[in-house]
Design the sequence.
């Protein structure tokens, strides 16, 4: 009989969002007449915008004709898309990232989960708490941790608590870490990072030979001109960071799947003899072996996001979600909740009622209001006592959900 990867047994609960779905489905089965309002998983509700749909259709039609049909695409992604990304997401902001630094993929979840494969198991990995659970769970699956402790922390990971007192920003570590996952605008707290704060991280990384794994999946929600959209806007970051970006929340691609990871040519790490190696060829080797690229019509659809019309259309959709977030935050504050996030970010991070445990509050909201959110404890021990609401919803659901929550109060 074959042996299992026992690291999976260290993961006590199921993955957070399927666990929420399981509880919601059970509740719906038992209460078939109750209309559920979903503000749990950060999944978009608005359809793909017109210019994206047109490009998608064109891509499919090209696949239907022998003269324009395409089989396997380049593993790193079509140059037409990588060039647009480099131009619009970086060069237009004065950041010298080239198309060669960009790897198109089918999601930032996959990329942030897979990235550790190219790094040795001896690395000290810094993890914020609360955090997007993929970073932790992938580290556990890859055998980079010991067992989970009573406090919910895995042995072998270096946790960076992000509580209310530190404005949900991790303190710059005093010890030397080799890899640190950062995410801004943050999932789950909705906190953003200023240029000064990110500069401290880049300085830390340069002084400590550390690599920052920077998840910027929500950068499109930044409206404040002072807030950087990319870690590469910080001088010196190209030799100490890689960045994960996605079309999921930017352009409604959660079901369509397209994202990209930026690995600058300058980024290096060492082997056990201390010799330096560039990271980019390793990620390229990993992707070309285990990934065959994103489909041509999807990449063509993603390219349309950068057209004049596409940029305008997707900005309008983001404005809609941001307005949801503004309404939610204002209304919850009026109800007397302590509320964070919801500005330059699609997530609202609130304190539970009367210091309730966050899963208890989840059950209360589901039973009393039929509203689904995400318990803060699902993002890590420091999320206990907090709750995340997602602004990815239709306006009338948001209003109805808030009304129902106000009645619980
Ligand atoms: C979330 O709700 O945290 C996101 O949907 C997760 C994701 O993008 O994978």
Sequence:
């Amino acid at each position: 009989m074959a042996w299992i990867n026992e690291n999976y047994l260290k993961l006590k609960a199921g993955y957070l969002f399927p666990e929420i779905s399981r509880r919601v489905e059970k509740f719906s089965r038992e209460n078939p007449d109750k209309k559920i309002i979903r503000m749990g998983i950060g999944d978009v509700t608005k359809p793909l915008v017109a210019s994206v749909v047109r490009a998608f259709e064109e891509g499919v039609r090209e696949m239907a004709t022998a003269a324009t049909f395409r089989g396997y695409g380049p593993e790193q992604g079509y140059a037409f898309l990588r060039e647009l990304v480099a131009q619009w997401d970086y060069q237009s902001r004065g950041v010298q990232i080239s198309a060669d630094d960009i790897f198109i993929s089918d999601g930032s979840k996959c990329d942030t989960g897979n990235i550790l494969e190219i790094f040795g198991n001896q690395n000290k990995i810094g993890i914020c708490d609360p955090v997007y659970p993929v970073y932790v769970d992938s580290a556990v699956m890859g055998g980079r941790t010991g067992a989970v402790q009573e406090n919910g922390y895995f042995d072998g990971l270096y946790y960076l608590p992000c509580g209310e007192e530190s404005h949900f920003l991790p303190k710059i570590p005093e010890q030397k870490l080799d890899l640190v996952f950062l995410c801004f605008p943050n999932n789950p707290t909705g906190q953003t990072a200023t240029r000064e704060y990110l500069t401290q991280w880049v300085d830390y990384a340069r002084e400590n030979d550390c690599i920052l794994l920077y998840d910027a999946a929500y950068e499109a929600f930044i409206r404040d001109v002072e807030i950087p959209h990319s870690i590469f806007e910080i001088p010196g970051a190209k030799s100490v960071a890689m960045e994960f970006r996605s079309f999921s929340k930017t352009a409604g691609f959660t079901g369509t799947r397209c994202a990209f990871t930026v690995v600058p040519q300058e980024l290096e790490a060492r082997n056990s003899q201390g010799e330096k190696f560039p990271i980019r060829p390793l990620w390229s080797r990993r992707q070309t072996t285990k990934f065959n690229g994103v489909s041509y019509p999807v990449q063509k659809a993603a390219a349309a996001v950068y057209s004049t019309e596409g940029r305008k259309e997707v900005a309008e959709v983001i404005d809609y979600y941001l307005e949801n977030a503004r309404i939610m935050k204002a209304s919850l504050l009026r109800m007397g909740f302590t509320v964070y996030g919801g500005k330059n970010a699609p997530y609202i991070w609130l304190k539970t009622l009367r210091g309730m445990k966050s899963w208890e509050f989840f059950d209360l909201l589901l039973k009393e209001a039929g509203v689904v959110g995400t318990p803060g404890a699902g993002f890590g021990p420091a999320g206990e006592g907090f709750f995340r609401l997602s602004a990815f919803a239709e306006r009338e659901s948001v209003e109805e959900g808030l009304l129902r929550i106000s009645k619980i109060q």
Observations:
- The two ends are 55 Å apart (CA to CA).
- DSSP finds 13 helices and 15 strands in the chain.
- Residues 53-306 form a domain with the Aspartate Aminotransferase; domain 2 fold (CATH 3.40.640.10).
